[in-house]
Amino acid sequence: MSVAEIYRRNFLSLLLTVVSVAFIIMLRRFLVPLVLAAIFAALVNPMYKWLERAFRGRRALASITTILIVFLLVVVPLTFFAGVLVSEAVQVSNSAVPWIQKQLHSPDEFMQKLHALPFAERLVPYQSQILQRLAEAVRTIGSFMVDRLSDATRGTIVFFFNVAILLYAMFFFLMDGRSYLDGITRSLPLSPRESARIVDQFVSVTRAALTSTVVIGVIQGTLGGIALGIMGVPGAVFWGTLMAVLSMIPGLGTAIVWVPVCIYLFATGRPGVSIGLAVYFALVVGSVDNLLRPRLVGKGTQMPDLLVLLSTLGGLMMFGAVGFILGPVLAALFVTTWNIFNAFVQESRESA
């Protein structure tokens, strides 16, 4: 390679890096909706392909129809659900804080309720610690709800703007996503087979992780919320949503919510409802994960439960609510990259 060619390659590489970094910085506020648009476009791509065939190759019409379906079946219900959730969260906060304060001011009455539990004798030595934790819960619940509601009020306009960007980007990703992807993979220093393997495995692992996490969480949260609502537990939508989020924790998941609820119902004089709910959650809600996960996730695409949990929690901490999706996606990219690297190393050893 001549000096001129080396100079030309280095100059183009530097120019590409500078322009790309500047472009990404310019779009940094839109990166999350753009990434989500790409993820959702990949997830609903089978529907788009079916509509494209039904509309005889009219890609724009198929893309618009797909987005309308997503908007009507996902965005609108989620927006309505978010309003109900905020309302019930306020209700739970307004009812929980006065109740805890009452127990703090009437410790004897609280201990009488505690003695109603079958394992009360084990809790009596920890009376002061329990009351102290209740006091901390008052402050935590109050500050958390105030902060979250303030954030929701300030972010409403930004939220709808990001949704508009997401849907608009999905329109183009559905029609031309494959050509965008092919252009990116052609620029990678990999063979076409390796590039195709990365894309296919990443899509399959991402789809499996999101499907298992979201679908199972929604089903368990819905079943739990309905049961709590039927039994007259206040804030059923709030507790059901919390169970849906916590369902990503293998083994424990929904039990983090329903066990304290059942204990509270038992201690407040509703032992029949408490036992009935405990049996229902243990047998019905608890079996959803074991029954559905093997069918939703193939053996070759399943990520370890620990990785799903850590990536989801890490995503929530780094990206906020959208981290529930972005976390597992990054984990899928991590797993895919390492799988491809291991395959490359193995092939190199065999050919040596």
Topology, element by element:
Layout: H1 3-26, H2 31-43, H3 45-54, H4 59-105, H5 107-115, H6 120-123, H7 127-154, H8 156-187, H9 192-230, H10 236-246, H11 255-267, H12 271-296, H13 305-319, H14 323-351
Question: How would you describe this structure to a colleague?
Answer:
The chain is mostly helical and 352 residues long. It has a domain at 188-257 and 287-347. 85% of the residues lie in helices and 0% in strands. The protein has 14 helices and no strands. Helix 3 runs antiparallel to helix 4 (59-105) and helix 10 packs antiparallel against helix 11. The mean pLDDT is 76.
Brief account:
With 352 residues, the protein is mainly alpha-helical. The chain is 85% helix and 0% strand. The protein has helices at residues 3-26, 31-43, 45-54, 59-105, 107-115, 120-123, 127-154, 156-187, 192-230, 236-246, 255-267, 271-296, 305-319, 323-351.
Mean pLDDT: 76
List unreliable stretches of 5+ residues.
Answer: none
Helical segment tally?
14
Beta content comes to under 5%
Q: Give the topology string: H per helix, E per strand.
A: HHHHHHHHHHHHHH
Class computed from helices, strands and strand pairing: mainly alpha
Q: Percent range for helical residues?
A: over 70%
Q: How large, in whole angstroms, is the Cα Rg?
A: 26 Å
Q: Please, what is the oligomeric state?
A: single chain
Describe the sheet with the most strands: none
Shape estimate: elongated
**Number of E-state strands:** 0
The separation of the N and C termini measures 28 Å
